[in-house]
Amino acid sequence: MSEPLLTIAAGLPLIAAVVLLVGALWPATKAMPVVWVIAVVIAATAWQLPVRWIAAATMWGVLLATEILWIVFGALVLLYTLQRAGAIAHIASGFASISSDHRVQTILIGFFLTTFLTGVAGFGTPAAIVAPLLVSLGFPALAAVIVALLGHAIATTFGAVGVPIRPGVADAIGSITGVSATEATAFAADVSGLAAAYHLLPGLCIPLVTVSMLVYFFGDVTDRSLAAVRPIMPLALFAGVAFIIPFVAAAVLIGPEFPSIIAPMIGGGVTVAALRRGMFHPEDEWRLPEPEAWPDAWKTSVDSGRPAASGSGVATDGGASMSLVRAWLPYLILVVLLIVTRTFTPIGAILTDITLFAPVWSDIFGTTITNGVEWAFAPGTWLILTALAAIPLYGLSGGDVRQALGDAKTTVADPAVALVFIIGTVGILLHSGQYPGAPGETSMMLTLANGIGGTLNGVYSLVVAPIGVIGTFVTGSVMVSNVTFSALQYELAGELSLSQTHVIAAQAAAGGMGNAISVHNVIAALATVGLVGEEGKVIRLNLIPVVAYTLVVAILLTITATIG
């Protein structure tokens, strides 16, 4: 088979994913198994892989998916445990009590709370939790979804405790022939700092952009204007700076697990302290129009504007007398546990060096493919332990605990199916070249990289960021996007003599913004406020800041792409 035909064949699984998810609007749970079957057929025919090699490559993906799902499950167990206790609702009400100005609430809840929930839970939960909270504060349902999706977007670059970078980027790069696990881990650490740096300038404007979207599209139904943005600009820019400085510092100095946890805690704390001292308060309180003036497209299915879904995931009982310190305490415990168990500590070294804590399956099914599950080192373990510590802290009953576990299992079920098949597909794309009979002993991913590199040479730096956005838009996850495209971007950057670190960092940064228009996340958020079916409106409006942000990242990468 000629090289052009091999390139087309290698790209068919990814093309199928885009067509099925975006064109046919199939759910990922239905599309990803089909994509895997296509990858299997191409691997067996064009790449002549035996069944055991295909099975081994798929099993590599299953092991990686298992580790990621353990993290997701732990994050959801902790989140739902705190919801049952009323801690999440209390944290939100603490923010809302500071000001009744909807612009201020957008910054405190629509930005800081959503970014924090991204860091500790991620995977679509922040917008699904915050949107109903905003509706209860008088936001139109459509506005609440747009604000929640846009507000949390940049934090998804690091997602739930760093999953998109490690294991996302690290494992994808580590699977490339000639790149050791140690080199991949070090590479992911470099990507972490650079990805945050790409957010440095545009990221500090996100609170202002989010408020501007609210004011312009929902402030006045008869006369759209940005006039109400001017009084809130000092607070919005202050909040952006207060967030972005610890965001970048945590990514550079500590690692990908902490930026989306530490930055909203520090930034939100500093912003709240400034407001309590009377700083940055707009002179006049600004409120959204009353529900009677809302167009039908803004409204939830309940006339009062309250969320229609009783299962919105926000506890309304309990926690009434809870102090904010007590409400935040489990997350403070989690931050401490994660820090003391990272690789730069003695405990972290033990958890990654001892086989019992990090079992490895070498030569899977008699091939040269190897992978494992670092179950003790993975943040999922410490998320579960934090949830267990919260049970006596809040005096939760056995029924509360069973409900939290049940909700977590239900929520993780659909992503599990999609994740296993998409990462199994990536495993085939990455490891197909290790089989001695493969064409030129080159993997499907590298073949695709070589073909695209030859076509886009000279302009490739301009399409890296859009690929990151499209990857997240299609897969619904920065982590899955990174697993899917990082190896491809790495190989392409090498082919084109561009900085591989800068290229993948830009992909991850832009991929975060893709969450604001991801079909999966949009559907999940709309479902919590009774507006399913309005996906087009949300995507169309949020596409405005997403395109602008992506353009900025693309320009920054073009300037820095030749840095070694």
Describe this structure in words.
There is one protein chain. With 564 residues, the chain is an all-alpha fold. It has one domain. Helices cover 68% and strands 1% of the residues. The protein is built from 22 helices and 2 strands. Strands 1-2 form a two-stranded antiparallel ribbon. Helix 9 runs antiparallel to helix 11. The longest helix is centred in the first third of the chain and has 35 residues. The radius of gyration is 23 Å and the shape is globular. It starts with a helix and ends with a helix.
Can you describe this structure in just a few lines?
The chain has 564 residues and is mainly α.
The residue ranges in which pLDDT falls below 50 over 5 or more consecutive positions are 301-319
Q: How much is the average pLDDT?
A: 83
Helical fraction: 55-70%
Spatial ordering of strands, largest sheet: 1-2
The share of residues in extended strands comes to under 5%
Largest sheet composition: 2 strands, antiparallel
Choose one word for the global shape. Answer: globular
**Number of structurally distinct domains:** 1
| Number of helical segments with 4 or more residues | 22
The termini sit apart by 36 Å
Structural class: mainly alpha
| Rg, Cα atoms, Å | 23 Å
Task: Write the H/E string, N to C.
Answer: HHHHHHHHHHHHHHEEHHHHHHHH
How many DSSP E strands? 2
Main location: membrane
GO molecular function: lactate transmembrane transporter activity; solute:proton symporter activity
Organism: Halonotius pteroides
Subcellular location: Cell membrane
